[in-house]
Each structure stands twice: as C-alpha cells, then as structure tokens.
Amino acid sequence: SSKTAGVALKAWTLVARGAHQHVAAGEARYLGQEVKMSPIEFRLLTKLMENTGRVLPRNLLLDHIWGTDVFINERTVDVHIAKLRTRLKDTSASGAIQTIRGLGYSFVCE
After folding, report:
1. How far apart are CA 6 and CA 31, in angstroms?
2. Fewest Cβ atoms closer than 10 Å to its Cβ: which of 44, 54, 71, 95?
3. pTM of the entire structure?
C-alpha cells in the first residue's frame, strides 16, 4: 500500500461471477469492459463483494457509504441497490445482489 495526503491506499481486485472490481482504480469490469457506475454504487458493490455470502444490514451499508454523521433514510440504500442491479443486469453478476427480507443485502457467488 502507498500513502497519499495521509490516507492509506490499498490496491486490490475483487473477482466474483466474472465481475472484476479494481478497488484502487475505482473501476468495475466485466469481461474486460468497464461497467459504468456512480462512486456510491461502486462503494456499495465493493462492500458487498468484500463480504460475499454475508448479509449486510441497511444501517451498516449506510454508515459505511455515507458515514455516521449524516441522517439518511435507510430506503436510500434500496434506491442505490436497484440502480446497481440495473448496471449489472447484462453481466454474470446479474442476480448476485440478493435482498434478504427484513435483514439487508448479500452478494451471492454461485
């Protein structure tokens, strides 16, 4: 890892279901083609892929993506997850983000 402006930067790639998430580069790829997404969608996908198979509650995702010092409705997560699913629909990661009713979301690698 390297340091820039006092912030530790880690370079790694998450790979699941043919989707590659190049975290340090801030890009997602499927079969070599970049999948365009917003920074929030990118951070959501990264968090879900880092925790593949685990259920992440909305409030944990809110705290991780938006921080603990802001008040944002939990349904905001649902909106961004829906957008993320749309972006992934033509990739092998389509269907990988599962809604676990009453609990949160999970990235499933089948």
Report:
1. 34
2. 71
3. 0.74
